[in-house]
Design a protein that fits this description.
By secondary structure, the chain is α/β, with parallel strands linked by helices. The protein folds into two domains: 2-145, Roll (Diaminopimelate Epimerase, Chain A, domain 1); 157-178 and 200-306, no CATH class. The chain has helices at 2-13, 21-27, 44-54, 78-93, 119-129, 135-145, 157-186, 202-221, 227-232, 234-255, 260-285, 296-302; strands spanning 32-34, 61-66, 97-103, 107-113. The protein has a four-stranded mixed sheet, with helices on both faces.
């Protein structure tokens, strides 16, 4: 009864930014809650990996990342403020388990409710290994010491983009081969072949590719997307990240001295990046997403003046 009365007292004294109601509401749908203002500390991709790691664990583990203002409850001792916040959140969540709350880059606090895990010493050990700005490293270190299995490995974004580009090129190659076969069968030979415009040398093609990649980089810099909207919407953030990954991948291929086939991949990669950037703009404006035109962007990359 004394513990219950103490928690009720804590609940009644926490107000405003120090009220954990938003955290408790977030825990109803996900074991990891990241305040929208803290996405730079724990990005969406890292938060998703933490979710995969703890969502089925027993005892239950709940993680929250909140701004440092959550410690502003009037107490001079901010450790007591952190303790009050976590215990109040646990009481309102009404579930036994391990609770970990990151207060910006200032403090991380953990409590075990109804379970025997020694979260205090474990958290102290991990905080000594990581900087306060490395919240993801600290949280994963705690989970390691709690013997929580790591999340299944996922393909890096750049590799996923590369695989998509390869699939598009393979599909285009098969289609082109089929079209050429039918053309040779049905077309009467003429005295003059129509040859698509191509740069004269491999170096000229590389120069055009570098120019297109640089232009795409400038488009990314000038996109002027609202950062708050990007941070709050995971779909917009994924589009922006994919566009940046495409730009980085194209640049790496060019730096490696790309040959003819690699240059085609660079053009397709840049086209894919432009499409994802256009998707981000459309989502923010509430407009229909543009259609993915695949190798059509490759054709435009060969003629940059065409828009």
């Amino acid at each position: 009864m004394r513990f219950l009365a103490a928690l009720l007292l804590l609940t009644s004294t926490l107000t405003g930014s120090s009220d954990p109601n938003s955290v408790v509401e977030g825990w109803k749908t996900s074991p990891v809650y990241v305040d929208p203002t803290q996405s730079s500390l724990v990005p969406a991709e890292e938060a998703a990996e933490l979710v995969e790691r703890i969502q089925d664990h027993r005892p239950a583990i709940r993680i929250a990342v909140v701004p440092t203002e959550a410690l502003d409850d009037g107490r001079r001792d901010k450790q007591m403020s952190a303790k009050a916040f976590v215990e109040t959140a646990a009481y309102k969540h009404r579930s036994d388990g391990i609770y970990l709350v990151v207060f910006g880059d200032r403090m991380t606090w953990g409590s075990a409710v109804g379970v025997n895990d020694s979260i205090g010493p474990i958290l102290s050990d991990e905080l000594a290994k990581h900087s306060r700005s490395d919240a993801v490293g600290t949280l994963n270190g705690v989970l390691d010491q709690l013997n929580v299995p790591e999340a299944p490995s996922r393909l890096p974004v750049w590799l996923l983009v590369f695989l998509i580009v390869v699939a598009v090129l393979l599909a285009g190659g098969v289609g082109f081969w089929w079209w050429q076969s039918r053309r040779q069968q049905d077309e009467v030979s003429t005295t003059e072949d129509v040859v698509p415009e191509q740069p004269g040398t491999l170096e000229e093609q590389r120069a055009l590719a570098r120019e297109d990649v640089a232009r795409f980089g400038a488009e990314l810099d000038a996109a002027d997307l609202p950062l708050e909207r990007v941070a709050k919407a995971s779909d917009v953030a994924a589009d922006v990240q994919a566009a940046k990954a495409a730009y980085a991948t194209a640049g790496r291929v060019l730096d490696g001295g790309a040959g003819q086939e690699q240059l085609q991949g660079v053009r397709a990669t840049v086209g894919y990046g432009r499409w994802r950037l256009a998707c981000a703009r459309a989502r923010i404006a509430g407009e229909p997403l543009p259609a993915w035109r695949g190798l059509g962007d490759t054709a435009r990359a060969r003629h940059p003046s065409g828009g």
